[in-house]
Structures are given as structure tokens and as C-alpha cells.
UniProtKB/TrEMBL annotation:
Keyword Ribosomal protein attached: no
Pfam families: Glycos_transf_2, TPR_2
Protein name: Glycosyltransferase 2-like domain-containing protein
Keywords noted in UniProt: Coiled coil, Repeat, TPR repeat
Gene3D superfamilies listed in its UniProt record: Spore Coat Polysaccharide Biosynthesis Protein SpsA, Chain A (3.90.550.10), Tetratricopeptide repeat domain (1.25.40.10)
InterPro entries documented for this protein: Glyco_trans_2-like, Nucleotide-diphossugar_trans, TPR-like_helical_dom_sf, TPR_2, TPR_rpt
Organism: bioreactor metagenome
Coiled coil spans: 280-307
SMART domains attached to this UniProt entry: TPR (SM00028)
Chain ranges of the Glycosyltransferase 2-like domain: 4-141
Length: 647
């Protein structure tokens, strides 16, 4: 038995050696059809032992591939593109596979993982036939997106599906950063074939993919629906038009019920495919249907674990987000152990794709000893890698863990040198406020509009209580900041307009992260000088986002006390936020009372339903009045109508 490896190539000097070397040891000949290279493609191929043929390009991929087949002498053909290659020596398994193959099989199908060449990330998985018998009736067709077919009428190419542990291909020909250029090129060729669509409806799906790459969502949906309506079976890609429709509708912000219909159409058509349950889970989460979302995330994981079909699958690179979503729900439920485990599972898969995941993990473990936090982070990240260190330091600047921040900032500076921002964060975390102020002062003079250095300069000056530093702050910072500092230090009375709100909230955040409790209290007290009492709600939201629920609760309650018996719509939202704070603080009976109040104030967002039910589940006993009101809300028509769209 002899094997022939075939390839068509043009300007593939960066890829061709990797491809050929991945199978060179198992094939008897290598045939490269060059379609007009101007780089070193031909030279590299010949040096690796390939027979190189030159082909006049005619905008037809199938013709070029068939030209290569005509020159092959082996019993079996391996036909990879130059940007594809067998992974980790799996090509050694090809000959044993062929020898044990039942006679009816004319081809071998194997898993291909598409890797973004720009960043090395897995994009998706698909199954392709790349190994087949040399047979005069097995040929390629189509000018683009060429595929194999059997020339004898009513006969097909029966392929054996091999496990990816035995044979796996990586494809590094695409990048999300480059998809627009390739989509434009492919679309031009495909539109020329549109008249052939009745005979070959797969053209519709390929056109839909091109419009997706060009971010023309309406056209993407149009051709995806034409593909589905054609009824054509498209092995490996039958799932793709359904996904194109859903992804495009999400980007177009279409009606939620319409998107749900498409998701359920996908589930009904492909009940064992994990992707559609992933869509459903994310949509349910956005609707704050947390428990149902969690079940769908679990279903996604279960289906992915069991998945053995050949259909296009994009869940593998998104598993990190499944665990992240489960962690969010567990955190909402006060299941801190579950949240911690899910966030860790997510970070093990993708440690830098979702910064909020690490931030939320840090909020959970910030009660741990600093040494234990560092041990956990070191198990997830490489402290000898600059990118990892930068990511950790950046995330830690938004979490109140000064000693941990000081450790990683110092490590980053020691290994890779310093930059002004990393240095000031390290000094701040180490409470070296004089040095912090001096660097922040220098940076602010160079860039007067830099709000980060302004906030750092103010916090370090206030912590030093140095009159000289405070004088400088009052002279060189923005008008709003000067007013804040004077009010805090000299106890002058100012009146602040709402235009100062952003600077004020930023200052309070830095006081929380790097100041002390006394200084933070003085900063929060500046809220009384604003015209609008809603600044207390903004402050409450700031601490809510930092998961400082006790502080947020005080601020929400202060606003309620100031505004009295107001029935404005904002009050319903505030009582809901207050109820969630109470739930997070495990004051479940008070949480129920506040959430009931939110509902009767007109705030009927679904999170009220979720947190009410969770709170009630935590209470062994509840007053008959509250129980009656609670049952009425949980059975309310408003919430039932809200839930109805999901089924």
C-alpha cells in the first residue's frame, strides 16, 4: 500500500513546512501544485522532497485539486491545505487505520480544530474528510469551498469517523482579525455561482458565512434562511445556518421572543448539540432567570461531554464562559464554594479572556490569608510570564487586596522593569504615600487630564496629611477635585453640580481601594453637597458592584430616608437593590420584606422573583402576612407572562 500526500499552494512559505513535516514520515510521495507563488513556497517544498507542479490559476479550487489528484500514484490520498497539519505525530496512525478499515469505506473523516493564527486560540471544531482512496470517480467540485463527491450517480463516499485521540488536524488559516478580507474575496466568487444554487444549495450557506464575516447581519440571516428552506443536507455544516441566524439576530438586538424561537428551532433540530443550550443559557441569564440559566449551562456541559457528532461545534473554546456563567449564578445564590469552583474551572481554561471572572474570584477569596490567595493565583497563572503578571496586577487594582497587589507589582517590576502606573500601585499598596505622591505628581504634570493619576495623587496626599501635598493638589488638579479636597480637609461648604458626579465616584472608589475607613467616610460625606440626592444611589451602586453590600445598603437606605414617601419609579429599583444586599448579607427575612416592597412599587424585573424565592427557601419560618404577600407575587400574572417567553 502506498500513500500520496497532495496539496495546492500559493505563497505559503510560513505554513508549508509544518504541514509537510507532519506527515512526511508516513507517505511515499508528496505532490505540491503551486498556483503562482512569489515567495519561497516552491523552494521549501522541493527541499522537503515534494514534486512541485505549476498550475495556471483559474479561480477554481476544485480544478487545481483535481490536477493534483491526476498526478498521484498512491493507493490512498492525504489532501491537506498548506495551513493544516496533523497534531503531535498522529499521522503515524494513518497506515494502521487504513489497514483495519472495513472494505466499504472509501474515506476517513477526522476532527479538525480551527485555531486563530493571530493569538493561538481555538475558534471551533469541525469534521472533514482529508484522507481517501485514489479512485478515478472520487473528485473535487466547486470553484470555492470545494468538496469531494463520487462521480457515479446515486453513489456516495462512505467515510469512517476516527477518534480525535488517534487522528487530529489543526487549521491555522483564519483569524477573527482577518475575516473581513477573506469574506470579501470569497463572496465575490460565490456570487458568481448563485445561478447554480438550485442544483447546489450549499452556496446559500457559504454566502451567509461571508456576510457574517463582513458583519452584514441582515444579509447573513437572509441567506442562512434560504439555506434552511432549501432542505439541502450539508454534512458537518447543517447546524451552521441556525447559528448564523441566532448570532446575527443577537447583534441586531431583535425581539427576544423571536430569538428564542430560533434557539428552540435549533434545539428541536439538533437535540444533542450543545451550542443551542448555550445560547439559551446566556439569554436566560440576561433575563435574570438565574436558576433556569444554570440548568441550561449544566445541560451544555453534559451534551458537550457526550458529543460525538460531526457537526460544526464552537462550544469547546467557549467552555470557559459556561463555567463563568455557572459561577455568576452560584455567587448570586450565596453559594460561595460553588462560585469559587466554577470561576477556577473557567480560569483554568481561559485565564485572561474574561477579566470579570478573576475579579469575582478575588472578591470571594479576599477573606483568605494573603499567602493562600497568592498560592491560588500562582496555580492559575505563570508568575514568570509578563502577560500573566500584567493581567493579575491590572485586575488587582480594582479589588481591595493591597498586600497581594504589592506582591505582584513588585514581582512584575523586578522581572520586567517598571512603568509609572505599576510603580504607584505597588507603592500605594505598600502604604508608601510620599513616594506615591511624588510619582503621581510628575505624571499628572505631564498629562493633566489623566484622571487615574489625579485620583492617586489625591489619595496619597490625603493619606500623608502633608500640607504641602494638599496645597499642590488644590492648585494643579481639576476644579471638582479641588472642591472635594477642600471640603474634606478644610471642612468648607461647597455645592456640587451633577457634572462633578463622575470625578466624585472615581475619587470614592480610590479611597475605598487604597485609603482607610476614616478617609472613605469623609469622602462619602461629600455626597451631601450635591444638588441631587440620587448621588447616594450612584454611590450605593458603586459599592454594590464591588460586592460591598453593607456599605451599599446604608447608602440606599439613606436615600430612602431623605426622599421620604416618594413613589417614584426609582424607588422600586432601590428597594430591589436593597433586598439583594440583604440577601447577600444573609438577612433573608428583611430581604423578603424589601423585595416585596420593590414589587409593589412597580419594579417587576425577574430578579425580584429569583431573590424572593431564594430568600423564602432560606427561611424556616415566615410571618403569615409576608407569606401571603410572597405567594401572591410568586404566582403573579406579571411574572408568569415574563416567564412564558422562555418555553
Amino acid at each position: 500500500m502506498k500513500l500520496s500526500a497532495c496539496m495546492i499552494a500559493k505563497n505559503e512559505e510560513k505554513n508549508i513546512a509544518r504541514c509537510i513535516e507532519s506527515y512526511k514520515g508516513v507517505v511515499d510521495e508528496i505532490i505540491v501544485v503551486d498556483t503562482g507563488s512569489t515567495d519561497k513556497t516552491v523552494e521549501i517544498a522541493e527541499n522537503l522532497g515534494a514534486k512541485v507542479y505549476h498550475y495556471q490559476w483559474n479561480d477554481h479550487f476544485a480544478d487545481a485539486k483535481n490536477y493534483a489528484l491526476d498526478r498521484a500514484k498512491g493507493n490512498w490520498i492525504i489532501f491537506l491545505d498548506a495551513d493544516e497539519y496533523f497534531v503531535e505525530g498522529t499521522a503515524q496512525n494513518i497506515i494502521p487505520l487504513i489497514r483495519r478499515l472495513p472494505a466499504q469505506y472509501k474515506a476517513i473523516a477526522c476532527r479538525m480544530q480551527n485555531i486563530d493564527y493571530a493569538n493561538g486560540r481555538l475558534l471551533d471544531e469541525i469534521t472533514h474528510v482529508r484522507i481517501f482512496r485514489r479512485d478515478k470517480n472520487i473528485r473535487y467540485k466547486n470553484s470555492i469551498h470545494e468538496c469531494l463527491f463520487y462521480k457515479v450517480k446515486d453513489k456516495t463516499i462512505e467515510a469512517y469517523l476516527v477518534d480525535e485521540k488517534e487522528l487530529l488536524i489543526h487549521h491555522k488559516g483564519y483569524s477573527l482579525s482577518d475575516q473581513g478580507r477573506k469574506s470579501r474575496r470569497n463572496l465575490a466568487l460565490l456570487l458568481k455561482q448563485l445561478n447554480d444554487a438550485p442544483e447546489d444549495p450549499t452556496i446559500y450557506q457559504y454566502i451567509s458565512d461571508c456576510y457574517f464575516g463582513l458583519e452584514d447581519w441582515e444579509q447573513c440571516v437572509k441567506y442562512a434562511k434560504m439555506s434552511i428552506d432549501s432542505g439541502a443536507e450539508f454534512v458537518g455544516y447543517n447546524v451552521k445556518p441556525y447559528q448564523n441566524i441566532i448570532d446575527s439576530m443577537l447583534r441586531l438586538k431583535c425581539n427576544t421572543n423571536d430569538i428564542f424561537k430560533e434557539v428552540h428551532a435549533g434545539i428541536n433540530k439538533f437535540p444533542y448539540h450543545p451550542s443551542f443550550h448555550f445560547y439559551l443559557a446566556n439569554m436566560l441569564y440576561d433575563l435574570k432567570k438565574y436558576d433556569e440559566a444554570y440548568k441550561e449551562y449544566e445541560k451544555t456541559l453534559q451534551l458537550q461531554k457526550e458529543y460525538s457528532d460531526i457537526e460544526f461545534n464552537s462550544i469547546t473554546p467557549n467552555l470557559f464562559y459556561v463555567y463563568y456563567g455557572m459561577g455568576l449564578v452560584a455567587s448570586h445564590r450565596n453559594d460561595q464554594e460553588g462560585a469559587l469552583n466554577h470561576f477556577v474551572d473557567s480560569l483554568k481554561l481561559e485565564k485572561m479572556r474574561e477579566p470579570d471572572c478573576l475579579r469575582r474570584l478575588l472578591w470571594i477569596i479576599k477573606i483568605f490569608p494573603d499567602e493562600d490567595i497568592i498560592l491560588l493565583l500562582n496555580s492559575l497563572y505563570n508568575k514568570d510570564n509578563k502577560q500573566d503578571l500584567d493581567f493579575i496586577v491590572t485586575t488587582l487594582t480594582g479589588v481591595s487586596l493591597p498586600k497581594v497587589l504589592a506582591y505582584y507589582s513588585a514581582l512584575r517590576i523586578k522581572k520586567y522593569g517598571s512603568d509609572d502606573l505599576t510603580v504607584v500601585y505597588m507603592l500605594l499598596a505598600n502604604k508608601q504615600y510620599d513616594k506615591t505622591f511624588n510619582i503621581a505628581q510628575k505624571c499628572l504634570l505631564e498629562d493633566p487630564n489623566n484622571r487615574t493619576f489625579e485620583a492617586i495623587a489625591v489619595v496619597s496626599a490625603l493619606m500623608c496629611e502633608c500640607e504641602e501635598y494638599l496645597d499642590w493638589v488644590e492648585e494643579f488638579t481639576s476644579e471638582s477635585t479641588r472642591g472635594f479636597v477642600k471640603s474634606m480637609v478644610e471642612h468648607e461648604t461647597f455645592t456640587f453640580d451633577q457634572v462633578y458626579k463622575v470625578e466624585f465616584l472615581n475619587l470614592v472608589l480610590y479611597l475605598y481601594l487604597f485609603g482607610n475607613q476614616g478617609l472613605l467616610d469623609r469622602g462619602i460625606q461629600l455626597a451631601r453637597y450635591f444638588y441631587d440626592n440620587s448621588i447616594y444611589v450612584e454611590l450605593g451602586n458603586l459599592f454594590f458592584k464591588q460586592e460591598c453590600y453593607a456599605e451599599a445598603l446604608k447608602l440606599y437606605q439613606h436615600y430612602i430616608d431623605l426622599e421620604g414617601a416618594s413613589r417614584e419609579e426609582l424607588f422600586g429599583q432601590i428597594y430591589a437593590a436593597k433586598g439583594i444586599c440583604l440577601y447577600k448579607l444573609q438577612q433573608y427575612e428583611n430581604s423578603v420584606a424589601s423585595l416585596i416592597e420593590a414589587y409593589y412599587l412597580g419594579y417587576k424585573n425577574n430578579e425580584v422573583y429569583e431573590f424572593l424565592r431564594w430568600s423564602a427557601d432560606k427561611l424556616p419560618e415566615i410571618s403569615s402576612l409576608k407569606k401571603s404577600r410572597l405567594e401572591k407575587i410568586l404566582e403573579s400574572k406579571d411574572l408568569k407572562d415574563n416567564i412564558k417567553v422562555l418555553h
